Amino acid sequence: MGQKRIKLAAIDIGSNAARIQISAILGAPDSPTLKKIEYIRYPLRLGKDVFNYGEIREERKNKYLKLMQCFKLMVELHEVDYMMAYATSASREAHNGPEIIEAIEKETGILVEVIDGKKEAEITDLALADFIDDESFIHIDVGGGSTELNIHRNGKKRASKSFQIGSVRVKEKDDPVWKEIRHWISHHLNPKYGPIAALGTGGNINKLFQLATPDVAFTLGRGDLKATRDYLNGMSIEDRIHKLKLNEDRADVIVPAADIYLGVMAICESPKILVPQVGLKDGMMIQLMQKALKA
pTM of the entire structure? Predict the structure, then answer.
């Protein structure tokens, strides 16, 4: 019988959906790889409560606790060795967030860490190592409740900021947050260097990329992204679900998310966006693997 594989579990509790991924470490310690064993995404939609009422209401709180109990069972069934759980924007802002996090730990033993936008970006960066080169680019990460912008130059992050706008927390173009975004970008980007490339992460840009079926691997032109956005906007949410097979919780947020990517790209005059199709959970997996291999 072979040696037992080390198993890892990453739980990502976003403002729109919650996810668990379980992976195993394969290969030698000096050249490890990760094999996905299990992945579940559940439309918990915490942001629907938090961004409208300032708290996670009773019905959704109960779903949250049940979901974490399910995740706990999966961790036990797969005999996971290392686990981490992060919660983002909606959990940061919910008035009753701390008491729910405490209840989760009490009922399941899972310690959920609520992280800020800066840490979220740093963890996601771990999964972007293969895509970051010496070129300058702006990394746009659109979540349900917040958007993280990160400017990279010469292979290093030079500026980073989280903005209160997302696919669930929708803002109009004349909202002050867009003025804040434009000011921040103009402060950190020098026009003399010309247009800057964009890199996009988040479930919505991944789906937009798949729908656009671009010719170039990992790359989507701004015009193609706009055309895909307009195509979706011309459909009812029901048609997006039935004709395009989108999940209900994707169908109603994908256009607002596209508007954020396009809005930032327009400000930066970005002609294209790189879509590596990785996110927070992928960075968490790398973090867990590093921890496991040091043990």
Answer: 0.91
